[in-house]
């Protein structure tokens, strides 16, 4: 076999391998039903319909910023995080009820670590929230059985 045919054979093999990798990537990512969204403010999230669709808590404070959420359309689960301002502490707290340890442990894999960092757990509608009142930061998850 000549050098030229070995080079051509190598190029052909490389093209097939590249095509196979691209096809595999497209197939694997094409099946992912996880949607991710970021909003600069509660007003932007509401305008996009994220609260109405149930991907963000209805108790979302008006001062919420840095809102991130992800949800899986296939299994109706999701979660995210946001920050909120000091002006909404009392009104936000009034909408929440303490979550049971069972509920917290079911939905937050690292609940003890979050507790150690100052987070407290609450339930509202179909959501379980971890709230740090000092830093006014929130993590939330959607309870799949409620969707």
Molecular structure report:
This protein is 37% helix and 29% strand. It has 147 residues and is of the alpha+beta class. The chain has 2 domains: 1-32; 34-146, no CATH class. The chain has a 7-stranded antiparallel sheet. Strand 5 and strand 6 form a beta hairpin. The model is unreliable at 16-30 (pLDDT under 50).
Radius of gyration over alpha carbons? 23 Å
Please provide the count of β strands.
7
Shape: globular
What's the overall average pLDDT, rounded?
Answer: 83
How would you spell out the order of helices and strands?
HEHEEHEHHEEE
Q: Uncertain regions: pLDDT < 50 for 5+ in a row?
A: 16-30
How many helix segments?
5
Structural class: alpha+beta
The side-by-side strand order for the widest beta sheet comes to 1-2-3-7-6-5-4
Please write out the topology.
Layout: H1 3-30, E1 34-41, H2 42-48, E2 65-72, E3 77-83, H3 89-94, E4 97-98, H4 101-107, H5 111-116, E5 120-124, E6 127-132, E7 137-142
Antiparallel strand pairs: 1-2, 2-3, 3-7, 4-5, 5-6, 6-7
Short structural description:
With 147 residues, the protein is α+β, with helices and mostly antiparallel strands. 37% of the residues lie in helices and 29% in strands.
Record keyword descriptors for this entry:
7-stranded antiparallel β-sheet; 37% helix; 147 residues; alpha+beta
């Amino acid at each position: 076999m000549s050098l030229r045919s070995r080079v051509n054979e190598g190029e052909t093999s490389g093209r097939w391998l590249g095509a196979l990798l691209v096809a595999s990537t497209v197939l694997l990512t094409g099946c992912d039903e996880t949607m991710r969204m970021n909003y600069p403010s509660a007003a932007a999230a509401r305008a996009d319909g994220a609260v109405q669709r149930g991907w963000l808590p209805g108790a979302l404070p008006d001062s919420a910023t840095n809102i991130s959420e992800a949800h899986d359309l296939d299994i109706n689960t999701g979660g995210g995080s946001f920050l909120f301002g000091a002006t909404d502490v009392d009104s936000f707290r009034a909408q929440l009820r303490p979550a049971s340890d069972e509920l917290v442990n079911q939905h937050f894999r690292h609940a003890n670590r979050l507790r150690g960092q100052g987070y407290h757990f609450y339930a509202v509608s179909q959501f379980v929230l971890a709230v740090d009142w000092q830093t006014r930061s929130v993590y939330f998850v959607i309870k799949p059985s409620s969707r």
